[in-house]
Amino acid sequence: MRGTMLWVLLLFAMLCGRVSVAVGDEADQDFLNSRDLPKSAEQLRLASARAQAHDSAGKGPVGSRPSAKSHFGLLNYGVLASYLACNLGVGWYLAKRQKNTNDFFRCGQRIPWWAAGIALCGTQLSTLTFMAIPAKTYATDWTYILVNAAIPLVAPIVVYCYLPFFRRLDVTTAYEYLEKRFNLAVRLFGSATFVLLQTSRMAIVLFLPSLALSVVSDLNLYMCILGMGLLSTLYTLMGGAEAVTWTEVLQAVILFGSAILTLVLIAHGVSGGFRTLFATALADGKFHFTNWSWDFTVASVWVVLLGNLFAQLIPYTTDQAVIQRYLSTPDEKQAGQAIWTNALITVPASLMFFGIGTALYGFYKEHPQLLNPGLQMDAIFPWYIVSQMPPGVSGLVIAGLFAAGQSGTQSSVATAIVTDFHRRFHQDLGEERLLLLARMWTVILGFVGMGAAALIATFSIQSLWDVFLAVVGLFGGGLAGIFALGIFTQRAHGVGALIGGFTSALVLFVVQRFTPLHFFLYAPVGILSCFLIGYLASRIIPSEAQNLKGLTIYHMSSPRKAGHGNSVWVERLES
Protein backbone atom coordinates (compact mmCIF):
# COMPACT_ATOMS: atom_id res chain seq x y z
CA MET A 1 0.00 0.00 0.00
CA ARG A 2 2.77 2.42 0.94
CA GLY A 3 4.70 1.52 -2.21
CA THR A 4 1.60 2.14 -4.33
CA MET A 5 1.08 5.52 -2.65
CA LEU A 6 4.68 6.50 -3.35
CA TRP A 7 4.39 5.59 -7.05
CA VAL A 8 1.14 7.54 -7.31
CA LEU A 9 2.81 10.57 -5.79
CA LEU A 10 5.78 10.19 -8.12
CA LEU A 11 3.43 10.00 -11.10
CA PHE A 12 1.60 13.09 -9.85
CA ALA A 13 4.85 15.00 -9.61
CA MET A 14 5.83 13.99 -13.15
CA LEU A 15 2.42 14.92 -14.52
CA CYS A 16 2.50 18.27 -12.77
CA GLY A 17 6.02 19.05 -13.67
CA ARG A 18 8.74 19.23 -15.89
CA VAL A 19 7.52 37.90 -4.12
CA SER A 20 5.78 42.21 -1.29
CA VAL A 21 6.13 43.29 2.18
CA ALA A 22 9.72 42.90 3.30
CA VAL A 23 9.16 40.03 5.72
CA GLY A 24 9.50 36.25 5.59
CA ASP A 25 10.88 34.29 2.68
CA GLU A 26 9.79 36.77 0.01
CA ALA A 27 12.06 39.30 1.70
CA ASP A 28 15.00 36.92 1.39
CA GLN A 29 14.78 37.26 -2.38
CA ASP A 30 14.82 41.07 -2.07
CA PHE A 31 17.61 40.59 0.46
CA LEU A 32 19.74 38.92 -2.20
CA ASN A 33 18.89 41.36 -4.99
CA SER A 34 18.82 44.65 -3.09
CA ARG A 35 22.39 45.69 -3.90
CA ASP A 36 24.65 45.28 -6.89
CA LEU A 37 27.56 42.90 -6.52
CA PRO A 38 30.33 44.88 -4.77
CA LYS A 39 33.75 45.29 -6.26
CA SER A 40 35.46 42.75 -3.98
CA ALA A 41 33.03 39.92 -4.80
CA GLU A 42 33.11 40.76 -8.52
CA GLN A 43 36.91 40.66 -8.48
CA LEU A 44 36.73 37.28 -6.78
CA ARG A 45 34.41 35.97 -9.52
CA LEU A 46 36.76 37.24 -12.22
CA ALA A 47 39.73 35.69 -10.43
CA SER A 48 37.89 32.38 -10.42
CA ALA A 49 37.21 32.65 -14.15
CA ARG A 50 40.88 33.44 -14.85
CA ALA A 51 42.03 30.53 -12.70
CA GLN A 52 39.76 28.11 -14.51
CA ALA A 53 40.86 29.45 -17.91
CA HIS A 54 44.44 28.90 -16.77
CA ASP A 55 43.60 25.32 -15.81
CA SER A 56 41.81 24.70 -19.12
CA ALA A 57 44.93 25.73 -21.03
CA GLY A 58 46.83 23.01 -19.23
CA LYS A 59 48.81 25.40 -17.08
CA GLY A 60 47.15 24.58 -13.81
CA PRO A 61 47.08 21.49 -11.61
CA VAL A 62 45.02 18.60 -12.96
CA GLY A 63 41.63 18.32 -11.30
CA SER A 64 41.67 21.85 -9.89
CA ARG A 65 38.85 22.96 -12.13
CA PRO A 66 35.44 22.29 -10.53
CA SER A 67 32.83 20.42 -12.50
CA ALA A 68 29.42 21.95 -13.05
CA LYS A 69 27.92 19.50 -10.58
CA SER A 70 29.19 17.45 -7.67
CA HIS A 71 28.34 13.79 -7.10
CA PHE A 72 26.26 13.37 -3.94
CA GLY A 73 27.31 9.80 -3.15
CA LEU A 74 25.79 6.84 -1.32
CA LEU A 75 27.03 7.87 2.12
CA ASN A 76 25.39 11.29 1.80
CA TYR A 77 22.18 9.69 0.62
CA GLY A 78 22.32 7.41 3.67
CA VAL A 79 22.74 10.32 6.08
CA LEU A 80 19.90 12.21 4.40
CA ALA A 81 17.65 9.14 4.47
CA SER A 82 18.37 8.65 8.18
CA TYR A 83 17.31 12.20 8.89
CA LEU A 84 14.09 11.77 6.90
CA ALA A 85 13.36 8.53 8.75
CA CYS A 86 13.79 10.31 12.10
CA ASN A 87 11.18 12.87 11.10
CA LEU A 88 8.71 10.19 10.08
CA GLY A 89 9.43 8.37 13.33
CA VAL A 90 8.48 11.48 15.31
CA GLY A 91 5.17 11.71 13.44
CA TRP A 92 4.45 7.99 13.92
CA TYR A 93 5.25 8.13 17.65
CA LEU A 94 2.98 11.12 18.27
CA ALA A 95 0.12 9.84 16.10
CA LYS A 96 -1.57 8.01 18.98
CA ARG A 97 -1.87 11.27 20.96
CA GLN A 98 -4.00 13.01 18.33
CA LYS A 99 -7.45 12.31 19.72
CA ASN A 100 -9.16 15.67 19.03
CA THR A 101 -8.58 19.06 17.42
CA ASN A 102 -7.00 20.46 20.57
CA ASP A 103 -4.30 17.80 20.22
CA PHE A 104 -3.98 18.22 16.46
CA PHE A 105 -4.01 22.04 16.41
CA ARG A 106 -2.58 23.04 19.82
CA CYS A 107 -0.48 19.98 20.74
CA GLY A 108 -2.79 19.39 23.70
CA GLN A 109 -0.99 22.42 25.20
CA ARG A 110 1.74 20.14 26.53
CA ILE A 111 4.85 21.52 24.78
CA PRO A 112 7.50 22.77 27.28
CA TRP A 113 8.62 26.37 26.94
CA TRP A 114 12.16 25.56 25.78
CA ALA A 115 10.91 23.34 22.95
CA ALA A 116 8.31 25.91 21.90
CA GLY A 117 11.04 28.57 21.84
CA ILE A 118 13.36 26.50 19.66
CA ALA A 119 10.41 25.58 17.40
CA LEU A 120 9.56 29.28 17.08
CA CYS A 121 13.05 29.87 15.76
CA GLY A 122 12.70 26.89 13.42
CA THR A 123 9.34 28.20 12.17
CA GLN A 124 10.90 31.50 11.16
CA LEU A 125 13.91 29.89 9.47
CA SER A 126 13.66 28.47 5.98
CA THR A 127 16.07 27.19 3.36
CA LEU A 128 15.85 30.58 1.67
CA THR A 129 17.16 32.20 4.85
CA PHE A 130 19.74 29.44 5.23
CA MET A 131 21.04 30.27 1.75
CA ALA A 132 20.24 33.98 1.56
CA ILE A 133 22.18 35.23 4.59
CA PRO A 134 25.52 33.53 3.71
CA ALA A 135 25.06 34.58 0.06
CA LYS A 136 24.41 38.20 1.02
CA THR A 137 27.36 38.47 3.40
CA TYR A 138 29.59 36.67 0.89
CA ALA A 139 28.68 39.30 -1.71
CA THR A 140 28.51 42.37 0.55
CA ASP A 141 29.09 42.95 4.26
CA TRP A 142 27.34 42.80 7.65
CA THR A 143 24.99 45.75 7.13
CA TYR A 144 21.96 43.46 7.42
CA ILE A 145 23.00 41.99 10.79
CA LEU A 146 20.72 44.64 12.29
CA VAL A 147 17.74 42.90 10.67
CA ASN A 148 17.65 40.23 13.36
CA ALA A 149 18.48 42.72 16.10
CA ALA A 150 14.84 43.77 15.81
CA ILE A 151 13.59 40.39 17.10
CA PRO A 152 14.77 40.90 20.74
CA LEU A 153 13.30 44.42 20.57
CA VAL A 154 9.92 43.10 19.44
CA ALA A 155 9.81 40.30 22.06
CA PRO A 156 8.64 42.43 25.03
CA ILE A 157 5.92 44.06 22.90
CA VAL A 158 4.60 40.62 21.91
CA VAL A 159 4.87 39.16 25.43
CA TYR A 160 3.16 42.02 27.27
CA CYS A 161 0.78 43.47 24.68
CA TYR A 162 -0.32 40.63 22.38
CA LEU A 163 0.24 37.29 24.08
CA PRO A 164 -2.30 37.90 26.91
CA PHE A 165 -5.16 38.15 24.42
CA PHE A 166 -4.26 34.98 22.54
CA ARG A 167 -3.91 32.96 25.74
CA ARG A 168 -6.66 34.37 27.98
CA LEU A 169 -9.34 34.23 25.31
CA ASP A 170 -8.46 30.54 24.82
CA VAL A 171 -8.44 30.81 21.02
CA THR A 172 -7.29 28.20 18.52
CA THR A 173 -6.41 30.73 15.81
CA ALA A 174 -5.31 34.33 16.18
CA TYR A 175 -8.19 35.42 13.95
CA GLU A 176 -10.80 34.39 16.51
CA TYR A 177 -9.67 37.44 18.46
CA LEU A 178 -10.57 39.65 15.48
CA GLU A 179 -14.19 38.45 15.55
CA LYS A 180 -14.45 38.99 19.29
CA ARG A 181 -12.96 42.47 19.01
CA PHE A 182 -14.52 43.57 15.68
CA ASN A 183 -16.82 41.26 13.73
CA LEU A 184 -16.95 38.11 11.63
CA ALA A 185 -15.93 39.87 8.40
CA VAL A 186 -12.63 41.02 9.92
CA ARG A 187 -11.92 37.51 11.17
CA LEU A 188 -12.52 36.04 7.72
CA PHE A 189 -10.38 38.75 6.11
CA GLY A 190 -7.47 37.96 8.45
CA SER A 191 -7.76 34.20 8.11
CA ALA A 192 -8.17 34.27 4.32
CA THR A 193 -5.14 36.55 3.95
CA PHE A 194 -3.04 34.15 6.01
CA VAL A 195 -4.27 31.07 4.12
CA LEU A 196 -3.59 32.58 0.68
CA LEU A 197 -0.15 33.92 1.60
CA GLN A 198 1.07 30.78 3.32
CA THR A 199 -0.32 28.40 0.70
CA SER A 200 1.44 30.28 -2.07
CA ARG A 201 4.58 30.53 0.07
CA MET A 202 4.76 26.73 0.31
CA ALA A 203 5.49 26.47 -3.41
CA ILE A 204 8.38 28.95 -3.26
CA VAL A 205 9.83 27.37 -0.10
CA LEU A 206 9.89 24.01 -1.88
CA PHE A 207 11.00 25.21 -5.32
CA LEU A 208 13.90 27.62 -4.73
CA PRO A 209 16.05 25.45 -2.42
CA SER A 210 15.30 22.40 -4.57
CA LEU A 211 16.51 24.32 -7.61
CA ALA A 212 19.72 25.41 -5.86
CA LEU A 213 20.47 21.87 -4.70
CA SER A 214 19.80 20.38 -8.15
CA VAL A 215 22.04 22.96 -9.83
CA VAL A 216 25.11 22.15 -7.75
CA SER A 217 24.60 18.40 -7.21
CA ASP A 218 23.21 15.32 -8.93
CA LEU A 219 20.02 15.54 -6.88
CA ASN A 220 16.96 15.64 -9.13
CA LEU A 221 14.89 18.83 -8.90
CA TYR A 222 11.55 17.04 -8.79
CA MET A 223 12.77 14.49 -6.26
CA CYS A 224 13.90 17.36 -3.99
CA ILE A 225 10.45 18.94 -4.25
CA LEU A 226 8.74 15.60 -3.71
CA GLY A 227 11.03 14.62 -0.84
CA MET A 228 10.57 17.79 1.20
CA GLY A 229 6.87 18.13 0.44
CA LEU A 230 5.92 14.51 0.97
CA LEU A 231 7.92 14.23 4.19
CA SER A 232 6.36 17.28 5.86
CA THR A 233 2.89 16.19 4.73
CA LEU A 234 3.27 12.67 6.13
CA TYR A 235 4.57 13.58 9.57
CA THR A 236 2.03 16.42 9.89
CA LEU A 237 -0.75 14.05 8.87
CA MET A 238 0.28 11.57 11.55
CA GLY A 239 1.29 13.81 14.45
CA GLY A 240 -0.39 17.17 13.81
CA ALA A 241 1.05 20.38 15.21
CA GLU A 242 2.86 18.39 17.90
CA ALA A 243 4.86 16.50 15.28
CA VAL A 244 5.57 19.78 13.48
CA THR A 245 6.81 21.35 16.72
CA TRP A 246 9.17 18.53 17.65
CA THR A 247 10.51 18.13 14.11
CA GLU A 248 11.16 21.89 14.10
CA VAL A 249 13.20 21.41 17.27
CA LEU A 250 15.17 18.67 15.49
CA GLN A 251 15.50 20.87 12.40
CA ALA A 252 16.83 23.79 14.44
CA VAL A 253 19.42 21.56 16.12
CA ILE A 254 20.58 20.22 12.73
CA LEU A 255 20.64 23.71 11.21
CA PHE A 256 22.72 25.22 13.97
CA GLY A 257 24.93 22.17 14.27
CA SER A 258 25.62 22.13 10.55
CA ALA A 259 26.34 25.87 10.63
CA ILE A 260 28.98 25.42 13.34
CA LEU A 261 30.47 22.45 11.49
CA THR A 262 30.59 24.48 8.28
CA LEU A 263 32.53 27.30 9.96
CA VAL A 264 35.07 24.83 11.35
CA LEU A 265 35.56 23.11 7.97
CA ILE A 266 35.94 26.39 6.10
CA ALA A 267 38.56 27.56 8.59
CA HIS A 268 40.35 24.22 8.26
CA GLY A 269 40.47 24.71 4.48
CA VAL A 270 42.53 27.92 4.55
CA SER A 271 46.08 28.46 5.74
CA GLY A 272 46.02 30.13 9.12
CA GLY A 273 42.44 29.09 9.90
CA PHE A 274 40.11 31.56 11.61
CA ARG A 275 42.90 34.12 11.98
CA THR A 276 43.37 34.32 8.20
CA LEU A 277 39.62 34.46 7.56
CA PHE A 278 39.23 37.29 10.07
CA ALA A 279 42.19 39.24 8.70
CA THR A 280 40.96 38.89 5.11
CA ALA A 281 37.44 39.98 5.99
CA LEU A 282 38.72 42.92 8.03
CA ALA A 283 41.06 44.09 5.26
CA ASP A 284 38.29 43.93 2.65
CA GLY A 285 35.69 45.70 4.79
CA LYS A 286 33.45 42.66 5.12
CA PHE A 287 32.57 43.46 8.75
CA HIS A 288 31.17 46.88 7.94
CA PHE A 289 27.62 47.11 9.34
CA THR A 290 26.82 50.78 9.96
CA ASN A 291 25.57 53.36 7.54
CA TRP A 292 24.47 56.50 9.38
CA SER A 293 22.94 58.11 6.32
CA TRP A 294 19.48 59.70 6.65
CA ASP A 295 18.70 58.59 3.11
CA PHE A 296 15.62 56.35 3.33
CA THR A 297 16.40 54.72 -0.02
CA VAL A 298 19.48 52.87 1.29
CA ALA A 299 20.03 50.29 4.03
CA SER A 300 21.12 52.76 6.70
CA VAL A 301 21.03 51.92 10.41
CA TRP A 302 17.72 53.76 10.83
CA VAL A 303 16.12 52.10 7.82
CA VAL A 304 17.18 48.59 8.84
CA LEU A 305 16.21 48.93 12.51
CA LEU A 306 12.97 50.87 12.06
CA GLY A 307 11.84 48.81 9.11
CA ASN A 308 12.49 45.47 10.75
CA LEU A 309 11.02 46.51 14.09
CA PHE A 310 7.70 46.80 12.26
CA ALA A 311 8.43 43.91 9.89
CA GLN A 312 8.95 41.48 12.78
CA LEU A 313 5.60 42.51 14.25
CA ILE A 314 3.86 40.99 11.23
CA PRO A 315 4.78 37.31 11.77
CA TYR A 316 4.90 37.53 15.58
CA THR A 317 1.44 39.10 15.90
CA THR A 318 -0.53 37.86 12.86
CA ASP A 319 1.01 34.62 11.54
CA GLN A 320 -0.89 31.54 12.74
CA ALA A 321 2.19 29.37 12.14
CA VAL A 322 4.03 31.43 14.77
CA ILE A 323 1.12 32.06 17.14
CA GLN A 324 0.34 28.33 17.13
CA ARG A 325 3.59 27.91 19.10
CA TYR A 326 2.35 30.41 21.71
CA LEU A 327 -0.81 28.35 22.12
CA SER A 328 0.94 24.98 22.48
CA THR A 329 2.45 25.54 25.95
CA PRO A 330 0.65 24.70 29.23
CA ASP A 331 0.16 28.33 30.27
CA GLU A 332 0.81 31.96 29.43
CA LYS A 333 4.00 32.17 31.49
CA GLN A 334 5.64 29.36 29.52
CA ALA A 335 4.46 30.91 26.26
CA GLY A 336 6.25 34.12 27.25
CA GLN A 337 9.39 32.15 28.11
CA ALA A 338 9.22 30.54 24.67
CA ILE A 339 9.14 33.95 22.97
CA TRP A 340 12.14 35.13 25.02
CA THR A 341 14.00 31.89 24.23
CA ASN A 342 13.47 32.46 20.52
CA ALA A 343 14.66 36.06 20.81
CA LEU A 344 17.85 35.01 22.59
CA ILE A 345 18.58 32.21 20.10
CA THR A 346 18.48 34.64 17.17
CA VAL A 347 21.61 36.45 18.44
CA PRO A 348 24.14 33.56 18.10
CA ALA A 349 22.22 32.18 15.11
CA SER A 350 22.61 35.47 13.24
CA LEU A 351 26.32 35.61 14.03
CA MET A 352 26.77 32.06 12.72
CA PHE A 353 24.98 32.53 9.40
CA PHE A 354 26.58 35.92 8.73
CA GLY A 355 29.92 34.40 9.67
CA ILE A 356 29.47 31.58 7.14
CA GLY A 357 29.11 34.05 4.27
CA THR A 358 32.17 35.99 5.33
CA ALA A 359 34.17 32.78 5.80
CA LEU A 360 33.16 31.57 2.33
CA TYR A 361 34.48 34.83 0.91
CA GLY A 362 37.85 34.25 2.59
CA PHE A 363 37.96 30.63 1.47
CA TYR A 364 37.29 31.35 -2.20
CA LYS A 365 39.64 34.32 -2.19
CA GLU A 366 42.43 31.92 -1.25
CA HIS A 367 41.13 29.20 -3.62
CA PRO A 368 39.51 31.03 -6.57
CA GLN A 369 40.01 28.03 -8.84
CA LEU A 370 37.45 26.10 -6.73
CA LEU A 371 34.68 28.61 -7.35
CA ASN A 372 32.29 28.17 -10.25
CA PRO A 373 32.17 31.67 -11.82
CA GLY A 374 28.85 30.97 -13.53
CA LEU A 375 27.14 30.10 -10.26
CA GLN A 376 24.26 32.27 -9.09
CA MET A 377 24.98 34.07 -5.85
CA ASP A 378 22.25 32.33 -3.83
CA ALA A 379 23.81 28.91 -4.62
CA ILE A 380 27.24 29.74 -3.16
CA PHE A 381 26.60 27.90 0.13
CA PRO A 382 25.11 24.74 -1.48
CA TRP A 383 28.05 24.74 -3.94
CA TYR A 384 30.56 24.70 -1.09
CA ILE A 385 28.63 21.96 0.70
CA VAL A 386 28.55 19.50 -2.18
CA SER A 387 31.95 20.32 -3.69
CA GLN A 388 34.18 20.75 -0.62
CA MET A 389 32.73 18.92 2.35
CA PRO A 390 33.70 15.29 2.97
CA PRO A 391 31.12 12.55 2.33
CA GLY A 392 28.70 12.10 5.20
CA VAL A 393 29.34 15.60 6.50
CA SER A 394 27.92 17.19 3.36
CA GLY A 395 24.96 14.84 3.67
CA LEU A 396 24.35 16.13 7.19
CA VAL A 397 24.48 19.76 6.07
CA ILE A 398 22.21 19.04 3.09
CA ALA A 399 19.86 17.48 5.64
CA GLY A 400 19.99 20.86 7.36
CA LEU A 401 18.94 22.51 4.11
CA PHE A 402 16.15 19.97 3.74
CA ALA A 403 15.19 20.65 7.34
CA ALA A 404 14.75 24.34 6.67
CA GLY A 405 12.90 23.57 3.45
CA GLN A 406 10.37 21.38 5.21
CA SER A 407 7.32 23.42 5.93
CA GLY A 408 4.94 22.78 8.80
CA THR A 409 2.71 25.32 7.11
CA GLN A 410 0.10 22.67 6.32
CA SER A 411 -0.64 22.36 10.05
CA SER A 412 -1.25 26.07 10.64
CA VAL A 413 -3.17 26.58 7.38
CA ALA A 414 -5.34 23.53 8.08
CA THR A 415 -5.95 24.93 11.57
CA ALA A 416 -7.15 28.24 10.11
CA ILE A 417 -9.37 26.61 7.46
CA VAL A 418 -11.06 24.17 9.85
CA THR A 419 -11.41 26.60 12.78
CA ASP A 420 -12.29 29.84 11.00
CA PHE A 421 -14.47 28.36 8.26
CA HIS A 422 -15.70 24.81 8.89
CA ARG A 423 -16.20 25.07 12.65
CA ARG A 424 -17.40 28.68 12.49
CA PHE A 425 -20.16 28.01 9.95
CA HIS A 426 -20.97 24.42 10.94
CA GLN A 427 -21.02 24.48 14.71
CA ASP A 428 -22.83 21.14 14.86
CA LEU A 429 -19.74 19.28 13.58
CA GLY A 430 -18.29 16.90 16.15
CA GLU A 431 -14.62 16.53 17.11
CA GLU A 432 -14.21 13.34 15.08
CA ARG A 433 -15.45 15.02 11.88
CA LEU A 434 -13.35 18.14 12.48
CA LEU A 435 -10.24 16.01 13.04
CA LEU A 436 -10.94 14.19 9.78
CA LEU A 437 -11.29 17.53 7.98
CA ALA A 438 -7.98 18.70 9.47
CA ARG A 439 -6.18 15.62 8.16
CA MET A 440 -7.87 15.97 4.77
CA TRP A 441 -6.76 19.59 4.42
CA THR A 442 -3.23 18.64 5.48
CA VAL A 443 -3.01 16.22 2.54
CA ILE A 444 -4.65 18.64 0.08
CA LEU A 445 -2.29 21.46 1.05
CA GLY A 446 0.72 19.18 0.74
CA PHE A 447 -0.29 18.20 -2.80
CA VAL A 448 -1.01 21.83 -3.70
CA GLY A 449 2.44 22.91 -2.51
CA MET A 450 4.26 20.11 -4.34
CA GLY A 451 2.19 20.53 -7.48
CA ALA A 452 2.66 24.30 -7.60
CA ALA A 453 6.41 23.94 -7.03
CA ALA A 454 6.59 21.38 -9.86
CA LEU A 455 4.61 23.71 -12.14
CA ILE A 456 6.99 26.57 -11.40
CA ALA A 457 9.92 24.27 -12.17
CA THR A 458 8.39 23.07 -15.43
CA PHE A 459 6.82 26.11 -17.01
CA SER A 460 9.07 28.92 -15.70
CA ILE A 461 6.14 30.73 -14.10
CA GLN A 462 8.07 31.96 -11.07
CA SER A 463 7.60 35.56 -12.20
CA LEU A 464 3.82 35.08 -12.24
CA TRP A 465 3.99 33.42 -8.82
CA ASP A 466 6.06 36.34 -7.53
CA VAL A 467 3.34 38.73 -8.72
CA PHE A 468 0.70 36.72 -6.89
CA LEU A 469 2.81 36.67 -3.72
CA ALA A 470 3.39 40.41 -4.00
CA VAL A 471 -0.34 41.13 -4.32
CA VAL A 472 -1.28 38.95 -1.34
CA GLY A 473 1.72 40.27 0.59
CA LEU A 474 0.35 43.80 0.32
CA PHE A 475 -2.19 42.86 2.98
CA GLY A 476 0.39 41.56 5.50
CA GLY A 477 1.15 44.98 6.97
CA GLY A 478 -2.54 45.84 6.99
CA LEU A 479 -3.34 42.69 8.97
CA ALA A 480 -0.76 43.67 11.60
CA GLY A 481 -2.31 47.14 11.65
CA ILE A 482 -5.74 45.64 12.29
CA PHE A 483 -4.48 43.65 15.28
CA ALA A 484 -2.84 46.82 16.62
CA LEU A 485 -6.11 48.73 16.12
CA GLY A 486 -7.97 46.14 18.14
CA ILE A 487 -5.52 46.00 21.01
CA PHE A 488 -4.39 49.62 21.37
CA THR A 489 -7.61 51.57 20.64
CA GLN A 490 -11.11 51.61 22.08
CA ARG A 491 -12.84 53.54 19.27
CA ALA A 492 -11.90 51.33 16.30
CA HIS A 493 -14.67 49.10 14.94
CA GLY A 494 -15.02 46.43 12.26
CA VAL A 495 -15.91 48.65 9.31
CA GLY A 496 -13.03 51.02 10.10
CA ALA A 497 -10.61 48.09 10.46
CA LEU A 498 -11.55 46.69 7.04
CA ILE A 499 -11.25 50.13 5.43
CA GLY A 500 -7.81 50.48 7.00
CA GLY A 501 -6.73 47.02 5.80
CA PHE A 502 -7.74 47.47 2.18
CA THR A 503 -6.59 51.10 1.97
CA SER A 504 -3.17 50.25 3.40
CA ALA A 505 -2.70 47.68 0.61
CA LEU A 506 -3.40 50.42 -1.93
CA VAL A 507 -1.03 52.84 -0.18
CA LEU A 508 1.71 50.22 -0.07
CA PHE A 509 1.22 49.41 -3.75
CA VAL A 510 1.66 53.08 -4.66
CA VAL A 511 4.77 53.37 -2.45
CA GLN A 512 6.33 50.27 -3.99
CA ARG A 513 5.63 51.29 -7.57
CA PHE A 514 6.22 55.03 -7.53
CA THR A 515 8.76 55.83 -4.79
CA PRO A 516 12.43 54.88 -4.26
CA LEU A 517 11.78 54.03 -0.59
CA HIS A 518 13.90 51.11 0.63
CA PHE A 519 11.93 47.85 0.82
CA PHE A 520 12.64 47.53 4.55
CA LEU A 521 10.28 50.47 5.11
CA TYR A 522 7.33 48.83 3.38
CA ALA A 523 6.27 47.15 6.64
CA PRO A 524 6.01 50.46 8.60
CA VAL A 525 4.09 51.99 5.71
CA GLY A 526 1.60 49.10 5.64
CA ILE A 527 1.07 48.89 9.40
CA LEU A 528 0.90 52.62 10.15
CA SER A 529 -1.33 53.48 7.18
CA CYS A 530 -3.80 50.77 8.23
CA PHE A 531 -3.73 51.90 11.85
CA LEU A 532 -4.21 55.61 11.11
CA ILE A 533 -6.77 55.23 8.31
CA GLY A 534 -8.68 52.57 10.23
CA TYR A 535 -8.82 54.73 13.35
CA LEU A 536 -9.95 57.83 11.44
CA ALA A 537 -12.61 55.84 9.58
CA SER A 538 -13.86 54.47 12.91
CA ARG A 539 -14.17 57.97 14.33
CA ILE A 540 -16.10 59.20 11.27
CA ILE A 541 -18.39 56.20 10.69
CA PRO A 542 -20.84 55.58 13.56
CA SER A 543 -21.22 52.14 15.09
CA GLU A 544 -22.98 50.45 17.98
CA ALA A 545 -21.32 50.38 21.39
CA GLN A 546 -19.33 47.21 22.09
CA ASN A 547 -18.39 45.40 25.29
CA LEU A 548 -14.58 45.53 25.25
CA LYS A 549 -13.82 43.69 28.48
CA GLY A 550 -10.78 41.53 27.96
CA LEU A 551 -10.36 42.72 24.36
CA THR A 552 -8.12 45.81 24.53
CA ILE A 553 -5.05 46.74 26.49
CA TYR A 554 -7.25 49.09 28.54
CA HIS A 555 -9.58 46.27 29.53
CA MET A 556 -7.07 43.47 29.95
CA SER A 557 -7.92 40.40 31.99
CA SER A 558 -5.69 39.09 34.78
CA PRO A 559 -4.72 35.42 34.72
CA ARG A 560 -4.90 33.30 37.82
CA LYS A 561 -3.19 29.91 37.74
CA ALA A 562 -5.43 26.88 38.11
CA GLY A 563 -4.81 23.15 38.17
CA HIS A 564 -3.21 21.33 35.22
CA GLY A 565 -1.88 24.58 33.74
CA ASN A 566 -5.31 25.96 32.85
CA SER A 567 -5.98 29.67 33.23
CA VAL A 568 -8.93 31.21 35.00
CA TRP A 569 -9.12 34.93 34.42
CA VAL A 570 -10.82 37.75 36.22
CA GLU A 571 -11.88 40.87 34.40
CA ARG A 572 -10.12 44.03 35.53
CA LEU A 573 -11.11 47.37 34.03
CA GLU A 574 -7.99 49.44 33.49
CA SER A 575 -9.44 52.38 31.64
What fraction of the residues are assigned to beta strands by DSSP? Answer: under 5%
Mean pLDDT: 81
Question: Remind me, CATH topology?
Answer: Sodium/glucose cotransporter
CATH H-level superfamily title? Sodium/glucose cotransporter
Which tags fit this structure?
single chain, 575 residues, mainly alpha, Sodium/glucose cotransporter, two-stranded antiparallel ribbon, 22 helices, disordered N terminus, disordered C terminus
Q: Topology of this structure?
A:
Layout: H1 2-16, H2 24-33, H3 39-56, H4 74-94, H5 101-106, H6 113-124, H7 127-139, H8 145-168, H9 175-181, H10 184-216, H11 221-268, H12 273-283, H13 301-318, H14 320-326, H15 332-366, H16 380-388, H17 393-405, H18 409-425, H19 431-459, H20 462-488, H21 494-514, H22 522-540, E1 557-561, E2 567-571
Antiparallel strand pairs: 1-2
Question: What does this protein look like?
Answer:
By secondary structure, the chain is mainly alpha-helical. The chain has one domain (19-56, 64-462): Sodium/glucose cotransporter. The chain is built from 22 helices and 2 strands. The protein has a two-stranded antiparallel ribbon. Helix 9 (175-181) packs antiparallel against helix 10 (184-216). The relative contact order is 0.17.
In short:
By secondary structure, the protein is mostly helical. The chain has helices spanning about 1-15, 25-35, 40-55, 75-95, 100-105, 115-125, 125-140, 145-170, 175-180, 185-215, 220-270, 275-285, 300-320, 320-325, 330-365, 380-390, 395-405, 410-425, 430-460, 460-490, 495-515, 520-540; strands at about 555-560, 565-570.
